[in-house]
Design a protein that fits this description.
The protein is α/β, with parallel strands linked by helices and about 325 residues long. It is built from nine helices and 15 strands. Strand 8, helix 3 and strand 9 form a beta-alpha-beta unit. Bound molecules: NADP nicotinamide-adenine-dinucleotide phosphate (NAP). NADP nicotinamide-adenine-dinucleotide phosphate (NAP) binds next to helix 2, helix 3 and helix 9.
Amino acid sequence: MPRAVILASRPTGVVQAENFEIVDQPYQPLQSGEIRVINEYLSVEPAMRGWIADTHNYSGSIPLGSVMRAIGVGTVVESRDSTYHEGERLCGWFGWQHEAVVKADAVIRRVARDDLSPSLALGILGINGVTAFLALTGIGNPQPGETVVVSTAAGAVGSAVGQIATILGARTLGITSGPVKVRQCIDLFKYQNALDYKTSDFKDRIAEICRQGIDVYYDNTSGRITDSVLPHLAVGSRIIVCGTASIPQWAPWPQGPRVERHLLVKRARMEGFVIFDHMEWQSAIDQLSAWIRQGKLQYVEEFLDGIESCPDAIAGLYRGENHGKRIIRLS
Ligand SMILES: NC(=O)c1ccc[n+]([C@@H]2O[C@H](COP(=O)([O-])OP(=O)(O)OC[C@H]3O[C@@H](n4cnc5c(N)ncnc54)[C@H](OP(=O)(O)O)[C@@H]3O)[C@@H](O)[C@H]2O)c1
């Protein structure tokens, strides 16, 4: 029997396994305009925490008792829509469930059956890679020789940002946690420097490495890491606010150091980016695919097997357990 993961209760802070329930899915006949997709891979995003919370966000809060919103990759097994046909592999808003019955507008894109794994449509050739590419090039616009600093540097978005910045000729500093991810940043993702933000000399090391100033800061964390980076901005620097992974909750609103003086003195620009405002992904996907095939862009995927892995998967991201893009693999 196909099963689905529903949101059973709303958390305070980071969502935990006990906030979800796994239920059987009763058979749902197709209505006109709908397709039935059997999911193969389901995405796990840090942003899911925000989609669940009932505080102000860029998207509506997931109602209690409904299937957890998620991007998935799967194959159409039945169609009452003229655009998508049986046997096509698609990426779309298919939810944390074995079987999705959705309208055609839930589809993000077709996934070609080629030399690249379909799971990449959830990571480097999906939300993570496309976000990295569009936000870095659109807002950061790094120039050869400039310094780009990236937080969550070993993660799905961050590892792509660091490598794209290197391809564009910038110097890169990655910020992550623990010696294994620091090593991975240097060896696999080719950052010139990488730092562990949990070490006691973290602040001093940023100052030392970024003596000439930081031209682009790709911020995925906010909080203490960002407080340590901002004093080293270069004049005319650009800050991309892409994520706030280090802030456990936004109610009550946390008080941090004021950023305005840094922006003023360094004539810096700070801009938020949300991928769902930029759903024209194809040219970014073409470029990212070309770099993968040329061996210039590396990625790491971490598979958790079975729908039973879903409930604890988001909390695991906030424990920093994941290595690369976290994906649920269904049999
Ligand atoms: N704006 C957009 O459109 C958009 C789209 C996609 C993703 N994002 C954002 O991009 C960021 C990275 O997403 P991702 O999917 O690539 O996830 P990821 O980096 O693969 O995984 C999340 C990582 O966040 C870090 N983290 C967790 N708690 C932390 C804390 N308290 N302090 C500092 N770091 C912490 C951990 O890495 P460390 O081991 O390095 O601490 C963890 O591995 C997230 O903030 C996400 O919301 C934004």
